[in-house]
UniProtKB/TrEMBL annotation:
Residues 176-216 form the Pyridoxine 5'-phosphate oxidase dimerisation C-terminal domain. Binds 1 FMN per subunit. Homodimer. One of its GO terms (biological process) is pyridoxine biosynthetic process. It comes from Morganella morganii (Proteus morganii). Its EC number is 1.4.3.5. Substrate binds at residues 12-15, 70, 127, 131, 135, 195-197. Residues 37-163 form the Pyridoxamine 5'-phosphate oxidase N-terminal domain. Pathway: Cofactor metabolism; pyridoxal 5'-phosphate salvage; pyridoxal 5'-phosphate from pyridoxamine 5'-phosphate: step 1/1; Cofactor metabolism; pyridoxal 5'-phosphate salvage; pyridoxal 5'-phosphate from pyridoxine 5'-phosphate: step 1/1. This is Pyridoxine/pyridoxamine 5'-phosphate oxidase. Catalyzes the oxidation of either pyridoxine 5'-phosphate (PNP) or pyridoxamine 5'-phosphate (PMP) into pyridoxal 5'-phosphate (PLP). One of its GO terms (molecular function) is FMN binding. FMN binds at residues 65-70, 80-81, 86-87, 109, 144-145, 189, 199.
Length: 216
């Protein structure tokens, strides 16, 4: 490794965007998340709906990847994927999931923990046909997570399918679907000076939500 590269141990900064107090919180974590997401959009963050999804395989090995949040409401958070993908295969055997929103430039993070359920075909069809046509075709072209020998194979398949579906609608692939994350806890993290960050954890109860401050 080059001697000119800065030692990563020396890379640091202060978090000065402001604190988070109990009085700032909503009673419902989804209302709090909606407020923070709106502020992330207003700040023109790149991909404010990008979330890191963590799943675990049959050996207990964790995996992470970035997907886009496509809807949220009181029933949960929704994302879509190829059902033959590695994450979908993991979730078929172990529905537990963690998703993390890393809003670095606002010194904020949000983490949801819960379990997933598959979306209905009606929900998937409705969203699939709202996507740009090239995105619909790309879903057909890519057998997500499968090994390919060269990018040209993928591009060639895309062009072949683009010609095939030149006229008319692109049908929903049988292997494409989505998940709803039924979350049981949500943590909000706001960076603070001197590493005295503010963390609040919402935990679902029979009567609503408990809220606890966590040490940084």
């Amino acid at each position: 490794m080059s001697d000119e590269f800065t030692d990563v141990a020396d890379l640091r900064r202060e978090y000065t965007k402001g604190g988070l107090r109990r009085r700032d919180l909503s009673d419902d974590p989804l209302e709090m998340f909606e407020r923070w997401l709106k502020q992330a959009c207003e700040a023109k963050l790149t991909d404010p709906t990008a979330m890191c999804v963590a799943t675990v395989d049959e050996t207990g090995q964790p995996y992470q990847r970035i997907v886009l949040l496509k809807h949220f409401d009181k029933d949960g958070l929704i994302f879509y994927t190829n059902m033959g993908s590695r994450k979908a295969q993991h979730l078929a055997k172990n529905p537990k999931i963690s998703v993390h929103f890393p809003w670095y430039s606002l010194d904020r993070q949000v983490c949801f923990l819960g379990e997933v359920e598959r979306l209905s075909t009606l929900e998937v069809v409705k969203y699939f046909h709202s996507r740009p046509k090239d995105s619909q075709i790309a879903a057909w072209a890519s057998q997500q997570s499968s090994r390919i020998s060269a990018r040209g194979i993928l591009e060639g398949k895309f062009l072949e399918l683009k010609q095939k579906f030149k006229q008319g609608d692109v049908p929903l692939p049988s292997f494409w679907g989505g998940f709803r994350i039924k979350f049981s806890s949500v943590e909000f993290w706001q960076g603070g000076e001197h590493r005295l960050h503010d963390r609040f954890l919402y935990t679902r109860t029979a009567d609503g939500w408990d809220i606890d401050r966590l040490a940084p």
